[in-house]
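hiii so my PI (J.) wants the whole complex modelled not just the main chain, which honestly fair. so below is everything: two entries, each one labled with what it is. i double checked the lines twice but i was tired so who knows lol
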Amino acid sequence: MIDVLYFAWLRERIGAPKERLETGAETVADLIEELKGRSEAHALAFSDVSAVRAALDQELVEDMSAPIGGAREVAFFPPMTGG
Amino acid sequence: MSVRVQSDPFDMGAEVDAFTARASGAGAVVTFSGLVRDEGGTLTRMEIEHYPGMTEKALEKIRSEAVTRWSLTEAMIIHRHGPMKPGDQIMMVATAARHRSDAFAAAEFLMDYLKSRAPFWKKEYGADGETWVAAKDEDEAALERW
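here's the output for the full assembly
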C-alpha cells in the first residue's frame, strides 16, 4: 500500500488530499498512468504532466522516471511557490 | 529553533534580536522578510498551503547547505502558512557571518531556494476570484547561479 498525497490545484481537481492504494507501478510515471485511469478528475489533474512535480517519501524527484522502490508516500503538486 | 513553519505571525524585531544574540563570532547579520503584496489593491487575501513533514526537511536542508557553503555562524528561516492579508509578513531569513559579503550571498541563496524548492503553494483571492500563483521561469533560472 502506498499513500498518494495531492497539493494545491491537484488536490482541488482530484477532490481529495490523500488516497491509499495498492499499485504495481515501478516508476512515478507508471503510477501517474495508473492514476489517470481511476476517474475523470484524475485524468484531468494529470492531463499536463509537465505542470506536475512529485516527491517520494518527502524528497523531490528529478524526473518522473524515478523508481518508486519501497517508498511509502508519493506526493504530486504544482511547481512550488515559496518565499 | 533555526527552522520554523507556523501559521502564527512572528515579531521580526524580537526574532532578529534573539538571532543576533546567538550568532556569536559574527561581524555581520543580514535579514530579509517577504510580505504579501496588495497587487495594486486587487488582492484581498492569500492562502498558503504546504506539505507538513517535507516542508521542515526541505527548509533544514536549504539552511544547512547555506551554513556550510558560507561558513555561517548562524542562519534561520521562518515561513508561515495559512490565511494572510496584504502587508502581512509571510517569511523571514536571517544569516550571520564574519563578513557581510557571505551573509548577503547566503541570504540570497536561501531566498532563491525557498522560492522553488520549499513545498509551499500560494493562492490569491481578489475581485476576479481565486488563482493559484504560478511558478516563474526566472525563479527556476535563479538557482543556476549557485
